[in-house]
Design goal:
Blueprint (H helix, E strand, L loop, with lengths): L3 H12 L2 H8 L3 H15 L4 E4 L2 E4 L1 H26 L6 E8 H18 L3 E8 L1 H9 L5 E4 L8 E16 L9 E2 L1 H6 L2 E4 L4 H12 L9 E5 L2 H8 L5 E5 L4 H5 L3 E3 L1 E2 L4 E10 L5 H16 L12
Parallel strand pairs: 3-4, 3-5, 7-12, 8-9, 8-10
Antiparallel strand pairs: 1-2, 5-13, 6-10, 6-11, 6-13
Helix pairs in contact: 1-2, 1-3, 1-4, 2-3
């Protein structure tokens, strides 16, 4: 129902590329250019500065971007609400999820959700927690799911699942053989951790800070950009990694990794929904309620028993 020209402008403005907007909307590039020219003629302004192969927003373009974000969001809410009058769930949901949640928690949830709500067009962006929050502030997504411990004042957070980050090593590669070590022993062991900006590293640093310990005082050998990268590395190294319990359930059952507890230290956190303050989207609320129902019906374990505790 919404003016397609606004969708075209929004896609070009967010990507700062006519080509990328064309690919995103499955519309030819000449058609994209035509829609932009129509908007510029309608308002008697230039929306983009063109410098060679690059474009940037003019002042008028920035104003239109601000309004188009709100208008398109309202159209999505309207579309959802009107279909609800017929008990029909349809519309669009743009999710952004941190890497751990996207890879290890969401797959079965999304499979069941799309089965129950086949008319809702769902897209998922997988990135680290800070990028999810940024995408939400830029209106690139409708709802975020993050694992960070920091809170931005203009966003709303709602916890939906508890998680524990556990120190693990490879059994085959002769990783740490003890089931529990002292904190001083922990400080000497070579560590493989997630990258700066990830919710996992934020949570680790927050727990350490409570103990008055800086990350720089530990023996951190490497930062990797994904949990899968850490797991793959550990399979070929005796180093210790710290990852979500949800990421290693299978490896624990198969006796690939063992957990080594650290005396007096546990890395616990919560997975949270994150949304814009005061901007509740009907499709997003429907998804939030679905996730809570799913987690209640399917008992999601924390630590599980494998070859070790």
């Amino acid at each position: 129902m919404s003016d397609f020209r606004l969708k075209v402008f929004y896609a070009v403005a967010k990507n700062l590329s006519f080509t990328k907007a064309s690919q995103e909307l499955f519309v030819s590039q000449p058609a994209i250019t035509k829609h932009i020219h129509e908007l510029e003629s309608l308002y008697q302004v230039r929306l983009f500065n063109r410098l060679g192969n690059k474009i940037s927003l003019t002042e008028a373009g920035r104003v239109l971007l601000e309004y188009s974000e709100r208008i398109l969001a309202e159209y999505r809410r309207l579309d959802y609400s009107m279909h609800l009058l017929h008990n029909e769930y349809s519309g669009q949901l743009r999710l952004g999820a941190s890497t751990t949640i996207a890879q290890y928690v969401l797959p079965p949830i999304l499979a069941e959700y799309t089965r129950q709500y086949p008319k809702i067009k769902l897209t998922l962006i997988e990135t680290n927690s800070r990028n999810v929050e940024q995408a939400l502030q830029e209106h690139s997504i409708d709802l975020g799911m993050v694992e960070g411990v920091f809170r931005l004042p203009n966003l709303r957070y709602e916890a939906f699942l508890c998680d524990e980050l556990v120190p693990v090593s490879s059994i085959q590669e002769g990783g740490e053989p003890e089931e529990e070590i002292s904190f001083e022993e922990f400080r000497q062991i070579p560590l493989i951790l997630r990258e700066r900006g990830s919710g996992t590293l934020d949570a680790i640093e927050a727990v350490l800070a409570e103990k008055g310990v800086k990350l720089s005082s530990l023996n951190v050998r490497m930062h990797l950009g994904s949990t899968e990268g850490i797991k793959s590395f550990l399979k070929h190294s005796p180093c210790l990694g710290i990852v979500s319990i949800f990421a290693i359930r299978r490896e624990l059952e198969e006796n690939v990794f063992r957990i080594t507890d650290i005396a007096g230290l546990r890395f616990q956190r919560q997975f949270c929904f994150v949304s814009q303050q005061g901007q509740e989207d009907g499709t997003a609320l429907n998804f939030i309620h679905f996730v809570f129902r799913y987690l209640q019906e399917h008992r999601i374990p924390g630590r599980i028993k494998g070859g070790t505790k």
